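Hi support team,

I've been running sequence recovery on a batch of backbones for a student project. Most finish fine, but this one hangs at about 90% for roughly twenty minutes before it completes. I'm not sure whether the input is malformed or the queue is just slow. I've pasted the structure tokens below so you can try to reproduce it. Let me know if you need the job ID as well.

Thanks,
M.K.
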């Protein structure tokens, strides 16, 4: 790894390159870590968790994602891991992070076999182009658990006034803060006391950064101390509770030797030489030839034996002579009826004496376990009394599923012992309990939005694990799901689950249990979710919990205004509905150009019983002016479910002012035929400027018929409002008498309905014509029709009345009554035209003509009958002769009946071939129904087999198509 100060410049381009993946935006990305500080044991694996907690508006892909892990320590800076554009650019050899994990949103970095050089601060930077950037910092501390060794004499005689020393050595631990104490427990006194005469040497640092320290206690044991046990109690950060190690020392009473001064010196002198000779002989025999059986200690095991972690089991064999010994190790599991041979250690280098007969050591049949367990070579030590000692060490790799409660046996064979000395111990294999981090959930839980609750379960072994999720609300417990190795059980379809598992080289596992669901206020607000974990290493289930506070962020509707088209200088009410929020507390403000408007009104907050969410309506009354049409009005909503306030905006761009139309003025006031006149209308006070002005003469648009007059528009403005003067100039004829001129002003911004003003031309001394009257009002083809018209205000009887259909003078069916004198002493004449309506009258102008014989003035009044176009009815095609022969001639005939107007288009065809030149269409004639009818024919030469002919008739006016098909069978 090698973090150093020289690596800092290398970090800069990596950060710059990752920052190039993004540009500033309002995007949102949040990361989560299980805990800001992580502690890892020396030479174990450490996981630095960093995951995406929330990401909206983007998706993860190799092209837009960048991940940087930066490391800072006292010695410098470095980059454990750099990932850009789908490529891992840098990576420590002990760091592990896969691309698949990154793309799933998990940027957690695994450091394998950590040492003290890994201690420091790690920063996880995540970039998602182009909008997002987030960082999280984690502090890593590396710990080393001390190895505790107790040094003591094996047997101490009391009552002689001598001291005994007990030593407690702590080695290879970190941090260097520790404490070691000696405790004495005396069963006869029923108490445990702390020994105070302690000598503690200063801690010594090893090359790898760990520390060693020795704590020694000296005391003078007495007879009442016999039976006491002595323990070294060690306190260190790596121990959850003080660690105890017992010293293998035994106190016994010293033999009492009596000396007498009354014995005669001569007797002493006589026996001294004898005793010396005998003692010398005994000493040489005991030292060279006497066999001493070994003393075998109880098997010593570590304080904890962990699943699939190496452990050493020790058996001390001491005080034996000669230096010939065999130490064998055996295993018996709960499943096996017999014991399996593991391994042994033996030595045979005895100096043999001819008169000593050695006993042959019997070795039982050995069956290798094949488990990778091994017996380490022992080192024989010679004691001061000529005896030997050996410590046999068995290195094991226990599996909790197989070796828990298994029996380990150490058998010692020696020539001085007639039987094999056996010591046994029962293994208590432990698993590594899972470490549960706090449940990770979103900071704000939104109503009916997808939520993921993640429970990190770290570094456990063995693998079998049972996970249970349940919920508590209002004192009621509800099981959600249970997951185990054998079977998963879901109690509700509302929930789904995903478990991401990681395995490490030390056979430990980590699982991220992720619960997916859509919380609602009714079912989940103020509820507690629990993740409960059961494992073989746990007496009681471990669990973590998280409390949900479900909130619903407010939806802000668009601002509405009343009236819809706001009028300048008139009251305008702005309203905004805010709904679907929870909890009830909410702040509503109205702003104009980001300044608060006082006096806004907000309705009472009401609860929608259907969805259990709150809603309200807020309103604000303003009087807009023309200068404020670019001002921005906001309805701003602040709620505890929102990170930032929400708002709806309104700009009164559509301010309007209704146009005001003056009366139409005629100049001259009394028009005369043949003399030019001008009709004028003033349109004022309108806004915006867009306006449409149309002039009509008897419903005929003047804009499209210049013969009815020339239109002139004169625009102007006043105080920002617009004004137009529109004029129609024309030279009227007698046909314009009683013509109605109408102006329609359409200002679409203020109203969809046009404003109208009308003016009817009357020439001085001219007669007055009535409206045309039809009986019946809706004429029908083939039916009689009466058209009535009258003229009044005549000054004399010398007049002529005539009827015309277009230019055709109509004489038949005309009735004239009058002239007769009216009560005004003027004359009136009535006329009626009776005729049978036919298709020829469709869209044909009917003219009533009046002539004053004294002035040679002719007045014409026109009407067009309200007749509709009629689609033709077409008969089926017939063939003449009905059964033609091959090669013979035949004629196909089709009748086209009852249509109006006369224009039709006929096409005969066979397949893709048309017969326009061969087909015959007779001239349409008026039939009995008053409509047109005709016949179309197609002469053909009969070919072989069946042939399909089509007759297509298109009615030009209605654009309807009628198609008939005929299959000719031979």
């Amino acid at each position: 790894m090698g973090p150093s100060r020289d690596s800092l410049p290398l970090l800069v381009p990596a950060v710059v390159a990752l920052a190039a993946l993004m540009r500033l935006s309002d995007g949102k990305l949040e990361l989560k870590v299980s805990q800001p500080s992580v502690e890892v044991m020396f030479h174990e694996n450490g996981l630095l968790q960093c995951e995406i907690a929330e990401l909206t508006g983007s998706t993860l892909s190799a092209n837009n994602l960048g991940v940087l892990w930066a490391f800072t320590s006292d010695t410098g800076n470095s980059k454990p891991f750099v990932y850009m554009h789908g490529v891992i650019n840098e990576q420590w050899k002990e760091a592990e992070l896969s691309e698949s994990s990154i793309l799933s949103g998990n940027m957690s970095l695994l450091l394998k076999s950590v040492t003290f050089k890994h201690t420091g601060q790690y920063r996880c930077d995540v970039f998602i182009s182009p909008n997002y950037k987030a960082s999280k910092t984690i502090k890593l501390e590396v710990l080393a658990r001390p190895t505790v060794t107790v040094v003591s004499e094996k047997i101490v005689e009391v009552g002689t006034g001598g001291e005994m020393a007990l030593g407690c050595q702590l080695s290879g631990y970190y941090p260097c803060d520790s404490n070691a104490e000696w405790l004495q427990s005396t069963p006869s006194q029923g108490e445990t006391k702390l020994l105070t005469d302690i000598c503690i040497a200063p801690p010594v640092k090893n090359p790898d950064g760990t520390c060693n320290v020795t704590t020694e206690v000296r005391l003078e044991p007495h007879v009442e101390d016999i039976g006491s046990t002595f323990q070294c109690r060690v306190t260190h950060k790596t121990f959850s509770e003080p660690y105890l190690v017992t010293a293998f020392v035994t106190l016994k009473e010293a033999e009492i030797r009596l000396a007498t001064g009354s014995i005669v010196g001569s007797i002493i002198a006589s026996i001294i030489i004898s005793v010396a000779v005998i003692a010398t002989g005994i000493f040489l025999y005991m030292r060279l030839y006497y066999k001493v059986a070994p003393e075998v200690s109880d098997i010593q095991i570590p304080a904890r034996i962990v699943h699939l972690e190496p452990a050493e089991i020790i058996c001390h064999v001491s005080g034996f002579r000669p230096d010939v010994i065999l130490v064998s190790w055996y295993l018996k599991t709960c499943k096996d009826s017999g014991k399996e041979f593991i391994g042994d250690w033996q030595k045979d280098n005895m100096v043999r004496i001819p008169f000593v007969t050695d006993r042959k050591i019997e070795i039982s049949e050995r069956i290798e376990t094949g488990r990778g367990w091994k017996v380490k070579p022992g080192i024989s030590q010679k004691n001061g009394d000529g005896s030997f000692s050996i410590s046999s060490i068995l290195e094991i790799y226990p599996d909790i599923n197989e070796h828990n409660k298994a029996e380990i046996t150490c058998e010692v064979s020696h020539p001085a012992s007639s039987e094999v000395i056996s010591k046994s111990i029962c293994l208590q294999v432990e698993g590594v309990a899972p470490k549960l981090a706090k449940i990770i959930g979103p900071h704000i839980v939104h109503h009916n939005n997808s939520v993921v609750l993640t429970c990190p379960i770290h570094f456990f072994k063995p693998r079998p694990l049972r996970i249970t999720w349940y919920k508590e609300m209002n004192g009621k417990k509800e099981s959600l799901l249970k997951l185990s190795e054998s079977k998963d059980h879901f109690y509700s379809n509302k929930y789904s689950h995903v478990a991401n598992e990681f395995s490490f080289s030390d056979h430990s596992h980590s699982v991220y249990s992720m619960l997916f669901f859509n919380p609602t206020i009714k079912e989940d607000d103020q509820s507690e979710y629990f993740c409960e974990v059961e494992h073989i290493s746990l007496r009681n289930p471990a669990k973590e919990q998280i409390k949900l506070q479900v909130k619903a962020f407010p939806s802000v509707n668009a601002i509405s205004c009343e009236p819809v088209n706001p009028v300048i200088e008139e009251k305008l009410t702005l309203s905004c509905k805010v709904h679907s929020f929870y909890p009830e507390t909410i702040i509503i403000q109205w702003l104009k150009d980001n300044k608060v408007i006082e006096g806004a009104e907000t309705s009472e907050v009401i609860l929608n019983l259907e969805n259990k969410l709150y809603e309200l309506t807020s309103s604000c009354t303003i009087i807009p002016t023309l200068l404020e049409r670019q001002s921005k009005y906001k309805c701003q909503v602040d709620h505890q479910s929102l990170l930032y306030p929400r708002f709806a905006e309104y700009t009164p761009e559509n301010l309007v002012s209704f146009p005001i139309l003056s009366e139409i003025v005629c100049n001259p006031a009394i028009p005369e035929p043949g003399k030019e006149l001008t009709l004028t209308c003033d349109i004022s006070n309108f806004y915006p400027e867009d306006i449409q002005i149309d002039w009509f003469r008897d419903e005929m648009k003047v804009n499209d018929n210049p013969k009815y007059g020339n239109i002139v528009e004169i625009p102007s403005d006043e105080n920002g409002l617009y004004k137009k003067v529109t004029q129609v100039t024309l030279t009227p004829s007698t046909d314009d008498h009683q013509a109605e001129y109408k102006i329609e002003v359409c200002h679409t911004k203020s109203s969809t309905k046009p404003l109208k003003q009308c003016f009817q031309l009357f020439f001085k001394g001219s007669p007055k014509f009535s409206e045309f009257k039809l009986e019946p009002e809706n004429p029908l083809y083939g039916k009689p029709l009466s058209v009535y018209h009258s003229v009044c205000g005549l000054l004399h009887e010398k007049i002529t009345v005539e009827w015309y259909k277009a230019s055709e003078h109509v004489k038949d069916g005309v009735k004239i009554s009058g002239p007769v004198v009216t009560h005004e002493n003027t004359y009136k004449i009535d006329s009626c035209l009776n005729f049978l309506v036919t298709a020829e009258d469709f869209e044909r102008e009917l003219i009533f003509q009046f002539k004053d014989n004294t002035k040679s003035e002719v007045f014409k009044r026109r009407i067009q009958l309200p007749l509709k176009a009629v689609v033709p009815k077409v008969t089926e095609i017939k063939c003449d002769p009905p059964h033609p022969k091959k090669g013979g001639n035949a004629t196909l005939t089709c009748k086209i009946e009852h249509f109006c107007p006369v224009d039709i288009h006929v096409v005969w065809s066979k397949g893709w071939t048309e017969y326009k030149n061969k087909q015959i269409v007779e001239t349409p004639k008026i039939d009995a129904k008053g409509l047109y009818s005709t016949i179309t024919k197609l002469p053909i030469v009969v070919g072989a087999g069946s042939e399909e002919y089509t007759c297509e008739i298109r009615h030009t006016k209605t654009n309807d198509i009628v198609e008939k098909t005929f299959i000719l069978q031979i």
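--
Follow-up from support: It reproduced on our side and the slowdown came from queue contention, not your input. Confidence is low (pLDDT under 50) at residues 1-25, 257-263, 350-370. No action needed from you.
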